[in-house]
Amino acid sequence: MAVNLESSEQVLPPEPDKRYVRDRMVWNPAMHAIPVSGIRRMVNRAAELDDVVHLSIGQPDFPTPKHIIDAHIHALQNGQTGYTMDAGLPELLTALKEYYNAKYRSTLDEDNFLITTGATEGIYLMITAMAAPGREFIIADPTFLLYAPLIRMNGGQVRTVPTKASEGHQIDPERIIDMIGPNTHAIILNSPSNPTGTVYPRETIEWLCQEAAYRGVEILSDEVYDNLILDDIDYPSVLSCATDLDGVAVVSSFSKTYAMPGLRVGWIVADQNTIRTLRRYHMFTTTVASTPAQWAGVAALYGDQSCITEMVTEYARRRDRVVDLVGDTPGLTGYWPQGAFYIAPSLPAGVDAGKLAMRMLEETGVCVIPGDAFGEGSSNLLRISYSTSMDKIEEAFARMQPWLERQPEFARYG
Ligand SMILES: Cc1ncc(COP(=O)(O)O)c(C=O)c1O
C-alpha cells in the first residue's frame, strides 16, 4: 500500500493532553479479589521444563465421543451459526428436561433451565447475582477455586468449613448449620468435589437442604461431576434431596460427563422466577452459548450413553491404583474418593504444599497442584488428578515416592 508521508501530519489525531494520559489500566478494586491461580503457576513452570508427567489435569483425557463431534459438525454445515433464544436452544432445553426428570425423578419444565457458556458462566451468574456487602456464603475448604473470588469481588464474605483428608474431606452438616446466622445468604456445595473427589452422602445433602430452606438460606450446588461416580452408590443431587426448587439452584455442564469441555455448554436449573431474572442478566455476559455446541449437547443427551460407563470404569480403575499408591507413599494421608478424577491427600503437619510441589516439579518433573489453589486452609494438601493414563500414573509415583522419602520433613515417615 502506498503511504503519503507528507500528508500524515494532517491525518494523525492531535497530541493528547499528557496530564490526562495514563500508561496503564486502572482497574476496579474488585479485581484485587482475583488471585494468581495456583494451577497456572504450576502449569506455566511445567511448560518450561522437559519430560514432565502431569497429575495436574482438570479435564477428561478421553476424546469427545464421535456422535457428539458429528452433531457439532452437522450443525455447522446446516447453518446453525446464529444466536439461539436467550434461555438456550429449545431442543436442548427439552432434552435437558427429559434427562433430568428421568435421572432425578424430578418434575422440571423447560423454563427451569438456562443454557450457559459452561458451568463457569452459570457459577458466575449465580454468585455475582447473589453476593453483596454484608452477605455471607458458606463453602468448604478446599473447594473449587471460582467461588470465593466471585463472592469477594462483589462484596460478599466467605465463611469456610475446613475438611480433612483423614475424614475423606466430608463436611459435617451440623457444623454448617451451626454457622448459619442472620447474614448467611447461601451455602455452595460441590459434590463430587474438585479438588477432593468426595461425594457427600444423601443424609448430608438432605439435612442441609431442609435446614437451609427452614432458615431462608439459598443452596447453590455445582454438580458438574454428577455422572462421574466411581462406586455403585446413590448420587444425591440437590434436585432429589430438596423438597422443592425454592432457594435451590444447580449448575452443571457437558464438560466432564461427555469429555467436551472446550465446547463450552453448561446450564443452571432453578425455579422459573430465578431463571427469568438470570435470562436478563445472561444477555450481559455471553448472550447465549455456542449454537452448534448446543446441538452437540442434544446429541450427547439422546445418544448412546455407553461412553460414560466406559470412562467411569477407567476412572475407577485408576482411582483404585492411585489410592494404593498414595497409601504406599510415606507421609501422605489418603482416603477413598468416590467421584470425579481427583484425590487431595494431606502432607505431614506444617509442610507447605506450595513450596514442596514446586520443588518436586523442578526436581522430579511431576506436576501436581498444591492445595492453597483451593482454599486458604488447605496449604498442606496436594491435588492429584488421575485424568491421565495408568502408565503416566505409575511413572509419576515412581518418581515422587523416593523423592518424598528424601525430604527432611518426611524423614520420620520413611
Ligand atoms: C467443580 C467444577 N465446577 C465447574 C467447572 C467448570 O466447568 P465448565 O467447563 O462447565 O465451565 C469445573 C471445571 O474444572 C469444576 O471442576
From TrEMBL:
Q: Which residues form the Aminotransferase class I/classII large domain?
A: 51-399
Cofactor(s) this protein cannot do without: pyridoxal 5'-phosphate
This entry's Gene Ontology molecular function terms read:
pyridoxal phosphate binding; transaminase activity
The record's keywords, sorted A to Z, are: Aminotransferase, Pyridoxal phosphate, Transferase
Q: Does the keyword Cytoplasm apply?
A: no
Top enzyme category: transferase
Which EC number(s) does the record attach to this protein? 2.6.1.-
Keyword Transferase recorded: yes
The Gene Ontology biological process annotation of the record reads: amino acid metabolic process
Recorded hits in PANTHER family, A to Z, give: ASPARTATE AMINOTRANSFERASE, ASPARTATE AMINOTRANSFERASE-RELATED
Q: What is this protein called?
A: Aminotransferase
Name the source organism.
Salinisphaera hydrothermalis (strain C41B8)
Highest classification ranks of the organism: Bacteria, Pseudomonadati, Pseudomonadota, Gammaproteobacteria, Salinisphaerales
